[in-house]
Write a structure and sequence with these properties.
0% strand
């Protein structure tokens, strides 16, 4: 009986840990986890209990990456739980979801997200994820986990946000849907998490992956611009001026195609970024001249309009990627 064997392995692992035999305890907890996973869902309390104890042991063994993976499983399970957020639970209670289709729940969740009704949005995305889990549709599960990550981001719960993004990416890789614009979006979100955590090289790696997909899938200029700006930030934070210049030149090229009312400000903003690189890399006069040329377009009012327009462009890109992913899931 695998579950009985798992119980014995856990008891043995605990005893070995108490005796200081952490290497043997590692083998016992690993065996216990494998046995329980062979018979139970990964979100089963009995599986999560092993994850929790095993993660602590792995930290003691100075294996932080392995421990982090198990901790993120616990975080994802908590994030998906109905009891994880009481305000969200109350907000969701006011919505009659009985008999609703997955598409209807997704539509309502997106409306709540756009209206910044964050607790309501979280409750609805949890409901959508629960429906996806019950259906077994991995595409829907990956999509709703990503959206749950966004919902936790709005509530400033960064650990849950990051864990959900990673789980979404993991599923996409497993089911071979990792060469889509939706995957590129997940990678960009994860890169921004790494930037905040000062893991700059990992952020650049993720952004390069996102840009490779976007190029292959003929992403819109707006989507490319958003990703390239994150890459520019990563380059500046690592003082990688050579790569930063290449990124900036791509941004300048994209800005030159802009014919919108804020085109002049966008070009000036991009040129000022390039000017900063020139000045830091020893081309001071060239940088100063470019900065002076741009200055006239960067008035407070123009900068405000640019910020508002950029926010709308971001929303537009989100709608485009959502539409593509929802079409692939067959809910449009």
């Amino acid at each position: 009986n695998p579950l009985a064997s798992a119980y014995c392995a856990i008891a043995t692992g605990r005893l070995q840990k108490m005796e200081g035999s952490r290497g043997l305890a590692d083998q016992s907890f690993k065996k216990a986890l494998e046995l329980r996973e062979s018979k139970l869902k990964e979100t089963s309390p009995m599986v999560l209990l092993v994850c929790k104890e095993y993660a602590t042991l792995l930290e003691e063994l100075e294996r932080p990456d392995d421990a982090k993976r198990l901790k993120e499983r616990l975080t994802v399970a908590e994030a998906k739980s109905d009891s994880a957020n009481e305000p969200a639970k109350k907000a969701g209670a006011a919505i009659n979801l009985k008999g609703s289709k997955f598409a209807k729940v997704v539509t309502e969740a997106k409306k709540a997200s756009l209206a910044e009704e964050n607790d309501k949005a979280l409750a609805l995305w949890k409901e959508a994820n629960s429906m996806a889990e019950k259906s077994g549709d991995q595409k829907k599960i990956a999509y709703t986990l990503f959206k749950l990550g966004d919902a936790y981001s709005m509530l400033k719960e960064k650990d849950k946000m990051a864990a959900l993004y990673r789980k979404s990416a993991e599923i996409r890789e497993k089911i071979k849907t990792d060469n889509t614009l939706a995957m590129a979006r997940v990678l960009t979100r994860l890169a921004n998490v790494e930037l905040v955590q000062k893991n700059y090289d990992e952020a650049k790696r993720l952004l390069d992956g996102a840009l490779q997909i976007e190029k292959a899938k003929n992403a819109s200029d707006d989507m490319l611009d958003t990703t390239l700006r994150s890459k520019y930030s990563a380059c500046m934070l690592t003082k990688d001026l050579g790569e930063g210049e290449k990124v900036c030149l791509k941004l300048v090229d994209l800005a030159s195609k802009d014919t919108s009312p804020i085109a002049g400000t966008r070009k000036a903003m991009t040129n000022s970024m390039l000017a900063g690189i020139y000045m830091q890399s020893g081309r001071t006069q060239e940088g100063i001249a470019m900065m002076q040329e741009s200055a006239g377009h960067l008035t407070p009012e123009a900068s405000k309009q640019y910020g508002e327009a950029t926010a709308e462009v971001y929303k537009k890109v989100e709608r485009e990627v959502d539409a593509a992913e929802e079409k692939a899931m067959g809910i449009m």
